[in-house]
Write a structure and sequence with these properties.
The complex is a heterodimer of chains A (about 150) and B (about 90). In chain A, about 45% of the residues lie in helices and about 30% in strands. Chain A contains five helices and four strands, in the order E-H-E-E-H-E-H-H-H. The C terminus of chain A is likely disordered. Chain A folds into two domains: about 100 residues, Ribosomal protein S6/Translation elongation factor EF1B (Alpha-Beta Plaits), CATH 3.30.70.60; about 30 residues, no CATH class. Chain A is of the alpha+beta class. In chain A, helix 4 packs antiparallel against helix 5. The longest helix of chain B has 16 residues. Chain B has one domain: Ribosomal protein S18 (30s Ribosomal Protein S18, Irregular), CATH 4.10.640. Chain B is mainly alpha-helical. The mean pLDDT of chain B is about 85. Classes of the chains: A alpha+beta (about 150), B mainly alpha (about 90). At the A-B interface, strand 2, strand 3, strand 4 and helix 3 of A face helix 4 of B.
């Protein structure tokens, strides 16, 4: 049982033709599907409309959705069959997450790594700069050094 | 007096003391390469969207494999192109 439950991550790309209400509906249907089949949703993230790097089915943009969940391999099989049948889906990708990936996703949610990385050093530097120019500059350099490391 | 910047050399003085390449993942202890972060993966592509060899990036074999895997996944979900020109 233990080795059956794994963390997976699926990226869906829906057609850009869908309206806002339809997007919510389809997203909800997939989330419900995973829950129904005994999976635990860890995260769902709707990126929204995004330009594709190359056209898929003659469409140049798509609606991205990323979900992370804990489930069995059979669930992934049934989910992928459902995806293939659904004409609203341009592409999908399921990836099994190893322990480092789980750690990374955990940190990403807290805003420590990834594209939406918050910069606590910068936020801390600005008040110091106001306090004194010389001190602020010196501390600013230190902060940059930390970031690069 | 001529300062150091005024002295001119026939051959570049930097020849011979090139810095050693290193694997950035090992150095910064990055364990996982996110395939959804296309901005980061761009560093390992050339202008045509091809994966750069290890001799250019300095990656260790282990992480070169993972970079390649991540790039291929990113291509599948259309975050990166398979073929292109003037990527950068």
């Amino acid at each position: 049982m233990d080795q059956k439950n794994q963390n997976y991550e699926t990226v869906f790309i829906f057609t850009p033709v869908l309206k806002d209400s339809e997007i919510k509906e389809t997203v909800k249907s997939y989330i419900d599907f995973i829950k129904e089949k005994g999976g635990d949703i860890i995260e769902e993230d709707l990126w929204g409309l995004k330009q594709l790097a190359y056209p898929i089915q003659k469409k140049t943009s798509g609606i991205y959705m990323v979900t992370e969940y804990k489930a069995t391999g059979e669930l992934v099989d049934t989910l992928e069959i459902k995806c293939r049948r659904d004409t609203n889906i341009l592409r999908f990708l399921t990836v099994r997450l190893d322990k480092y990936a789980i750690e990374y996703n955990d940190k990403k949610r807290k805003g420590l790594v990834g594209r939406n990385k918050k910069k606590p050093a910068d936020a801390a530097d600005t008040p110091k700069d106001e306090a004194g120019n010389n001190k602020g500059a010196a501390k600013g350099d230190g902060g940059k050094g930390k970031q690069s490391n | 007096m001529a300062s150091k910047n005024d002295i001119k050399f026939l051959t570049s003085p930097m020849i011979g003391n090139e810095t050693k390449k290193y694997c950035r993942f090992k150095k910064h202890k990055i364990r996982y390469i996110d395939y959804k972060d296309e901005q980061f993966l761009m560093k390992f592509l050339n202008e045509q969207g091809k994966i750069l060899p290890r001799r250019n990036t300095g990656n260790s074999l282990k992480y070169q494999r993972r970079v390649a895997q991540a790039i291929k996944r990113a291509r599948h979900i259309a975050l990166l192109p398979y073929v292109t020109d003037l990527l950068k």
